[in-house]
Every structure is written in C-alpha cells, then in structure tokens.
Design goal:
Elements: E1 5-7, E2 10-12, H1 16-26, E3 33-34, H2 35-43, H3 52-64, H4 69-74, E4 75-78, E5 82-85
C-alpha cells in the first residue's frame, strides 16, 4: 500500500505503474502475462494506448533493477506473448 520497493537496503524510485507491474510479476512467478493482459490489469480497461507501453515500462524497470542483475534478468521476455518473472535463474 506504500508503493515502496527496496533493493540492497536502498529504496528504488519506481513510478506507480512500474511498482504495480513488478508486484504482479513477482507474485506470480513462472506465469506468462500477455501485453494485453498487463495493460488491462495495470492500466485498466479504459486505457486506449499501444501495447508497446508495457515494453517501455519493462525496459525502465529492468534499468532500475540493474544493481541486482539476477533480479533484472528475472523479468523474462516470452517471445510473441509478453513477460514473466522467473524465480530461479
């Protein structure tokens, strides 16, 4: 509820959408989410943008998690589908 994430005892400056995206992925390890499903769940049914919005947010999220490469690499691209979080790398 505080929209705060920490990495190596330091807060990570995430936007609310980045936070929600990260939370959804890490709380559902191994499950692949399509870009459309991520748009529905994170941005809502009313969103009329491009699915590339998800790609941009994932790119920003991986960059912000770069201090922990194993975590950033845990956000895996599922070609032709979307994204998933893999726990064991």
């Amino acid at each position: 509820s505080s929209y705060q994430a920490w990495l190596h005892d330091k807060p990570i400056a995430l936007t609310p959408k980045e936070y929600e995206l990260l939370k959804l992925l890490v709380t559902n390890p191994g499950r692949a989410f399509s870009r459309d499903e991520l748009l529905e769940r994170i941005w809502g049914y009313e969103y009329y943008g491009d699915t590339r919005t998800v790609d941009v947010h994932i790119r920003h999220l991986r960059a912000k998690l770069a201090a922990a490469p194993e975590l950033a690499a845990g956000i895996e691209t599922v070609r032709g589908i979307g994204y998933r979080f893999v726990r064991d790398l």
